[in-house]
Write a structure and sequence with these properties.
The protein is mainly α. It folds into two domains: 84 residues, Non-ribosomal Peptide Synthetase Peptidyl Carrier Protein, Chain A; 32 residues, no CATH class. Helices cover 59% and strands 5% of the residues. It is elongated, with a radius of gyration of 28 Å. The termini are far apart.
Length: 128
C-alpha cells in the first residue's frame, strides 16, 4: 500500500502533469509539422530534384538516397519549426518592454529607485 501512495503522490505532482500535457501537445504539434512538410514542402522538393526516385540511389550497395532524403526532411522540419515557433509565434507575442524601475544618481551614478528623493549611497537630493 505504501508503494501505491508514493506513486500517487509522484504522479499527481504538478511537474509530472505539466510534462504529460507537454508531451500530448508536442505529439499533436508534430503531426501538424509533419503534415506541412510531407504535403507542402516535400512535393516542391520532388519537383526540383531529379525524377526517377532519387531516394533509391545507391553507392556501393549503400542506400545514400534514403540517407539524403532523411537529412533533407530533417532540415525542412527544422526550417518549418523555426518559422512557426520563432518568427510566427514571436510576431504574435510582441514583447512589451518593461518600464525601467531604477535611475542613475547624477552625483555618484549609483542605481536608485525612480521614486527616490535622495540617493541611498551619497544622500544627494534627486529631482522628482
Amino acid at each position: 500500500m505504501a508503494l501505491l501512495k508514493e506513486f500517487k503522490a509522484f504522479a499527481l505532482k504538478g511537474n509530472v502533469i505539466d510534462l504529460a500535457v507537454a508531451v500530448v501537445i508536442g505529439a499533436a504539434f508534430t503531426k501538424i509539422v509533419n503534415a506541412i512538410v510531407e504535403q507542402i514542402f516535400m512535393p516542391l522538393v520532388g519537383k526540383v530534384m531529379p525524377a526517377g526516385g532519387w531516394t533509391g540511389y545507391t553507392v556501393g550497395g549503400i542506400k545514400v538516397g534514403i540517407v539524403f532524403n532523411e537529412i533533407l526532411q530533417f532540415l525542412v522540419v527544422a526550417l518549418v519549426l523555426f518559422i512557426v515557433v520563432v518568427k510566427f509565434m514571436g510576431a504574435l507575442r510582441k514583447k512589451e518592454e518593461a518600464a525601467p524601475s531604477t535611475k542613475k544618481c547624477a552625483e555618484c551614478l549609483e542605481d536608485i529607485p525612480i521614486a527616490a528623493r535622495r540617493c541611498k549611497a551619497c544622500t544627494s537630493p534627486q529631482a522628482a
